[in-house]
Amino acid sequence: WLCMHQSVRVGPLKRGESKTIRGKIYLLKGKKEDVLERYRKDFDVRLGAKILSVEGKAHYFANGKRRALEASSEGGELLGGTTIFTKSRCEVILELSLGGAVVVIKPKSVVTIDELTIRYSEGTMGLDVKLFVKKGCILSCVEKVGAQSRFTVKTPKGVVGIRGTVFSVCASGIYSCYEGMFAVQLLGIAPSGQPPVYAVKTGTRLDASKERH
């Protein structure tokens, strides 16, 4: 099943076995984004980050506009390309589309949802989640990520690859693991000539705040 456009999932069939499948084929004039939007509407496929909780004062930028984030925003969604700003004594909790991952944006933080999209590879659907912690810290719980999906968190110091763990990441370069493990690739080149990569395991942390890369 290599092409979603001309094949359907029927499963293995034995000799003489048949199966009837009913569904929808979309034929409309427009871009692929128009088809995806229609699909999302019909099947309630959500690609946004759901706002679970807002405590204190916060705001976000999306499509060139600044909007407030407050208790009345709970239940709404933030799409890819949105940047969230939290002030002191403020936390924003989001639920991402990827396996119900929860992200807590800590006080005095600036976090951008760089990407939150569906991707198809060899007939299998995956989700791409990319966060950029520009300032402050986040705390997150991510269940095991499928092989076709990607969850990465970028900071000014490096990039974290997540497969399923409970962790925190700070823009200053402090990476902590509370359950599971994850890999951190620091920016810059090590003496070996390659970007340094570290594995952070349960109960440990990597402090790259003083590293110069």
Would you mind describing this structure in some detail?
The chain has 213 residues and is mainly beta. It is built from one helix and 16 strands. The protein has a 16-stranded mixed sheet that branches. A hairpin with a 3-residue loop joins strand 11 (150-154) and strand 12. It is globular, with a radius of gyration of 20 Å.
What keywords describe this structure?
globular
The major sheet is characterized as:
16 strands, mixed
Q: Give the topology string: H per helix, E per strand.
A: HEEEEEEEEEEEEEEEE
**Beta fraction of the residues?**
over 45%
Task: Find the structural class using helix and strand composition.
Answer: mainly beta
- Categorize the overall geometry: globular
Please give the share of residues in helix. under 10%
Oligomeric description of these chains: single chain
What's the total number of strands? 16
What integer is the average pLDDT?
84
What's the alpha carbon Rg, rounded to whole Å?
20 Å
